[in-house]
Amino acid sequence: QVQLVESGGGLVQAGGSLRLACTASERTFSSLAVAWFRQAPGKERELVAHINWSGKTTYYADSVKGRFTISRDNAKNMVLLQMNSLKPEDTAVYYCKTNNAWGQGTQVTVSS
Questions:
Q1: H runs (alpha helix) in 1-112
Q2: How confident is the model at residue 3 (pLDDT cuts 50, 70, 90)?
Q3: Residue 76 phi/psi, 5° resolution?
Q4: Mind listing the pLDDT tens digit for each residue in 62-89?
Q5: Where does residue 58 rank: exposed (0-12), middle (13-18), buried (19+ CB within 10 A)?
Q6: Does residue 83 contact residue 14 with C-beta atoms inside 8 Å?
Q7: 82: burial class by Cβ within 10 Å (0-12, 13-18, 19+)?
Q8: The predicted structure's pLDDT at residue 21
Q9: Of 87, 86, 97, 49, the residue nearest 71 (C-alpha)
Q10: How far apart are the C-alpha atoms of 8 and 98, rounded to whole Å?
Q11: Backbone phi, psi, residue 64, to 5°
């Protein structure tokens, strides 16, 4: 089972930026597709972005398209989520996932 660790969350004002990182110690991580999900209080967990193993294919939820960018550095066993033009509705706990493994989540709070 791949162990995932998210980092980079925090408090930011609306319009600001944050960059989240998802890292794994297992080398197999570089051969796996990875997704970022988020869950706001009282809401279901939703898919935010997805990237295939090579980084050549990505997917974004409509709500973040044009503002968020998912990328990966397989040499560092890392997947990044660059979040720009943040809105208060982006406030949530953000999780990375690969296969059946989830990270512990990192809190993102956007103040208005």
A1: none
A2: very high
A3: -105, 5
A4: 999 999 999 999 999 999 999 999 999 9
A5: middle
A6: no
A7: middle
A8: 98
A9: 49
A10: 19
A11: -120, -5
At 28 the pLDDT is: 87
Residue 99 falls in which region: left (phi positive, over 0), alpha (psi -120 to 50) or beta: left
Q: What is the pLDDT of residues 14-47, one digit of tens each?
A: 999 999 999 998 888 999 999 999 999 999 999 9
19 within 8 A of 13, measured Cβ to Cβ: no
Q: Facing residues of 63 across strands?
A: none
Closest listed residue to residue 65, CA positions, set 34, 90, 41:
90
C-alpha dist (Å) from residue 77 to 60, 103, 111: 21, 14, 31
At residue 3, what is the residue type? Q
Q: Which of 8, 14, 27 is nearest to 96 (CA)?
A: 8
Contact status, residue 72 vs residue 80, Cβ threshold 8 Å: yes
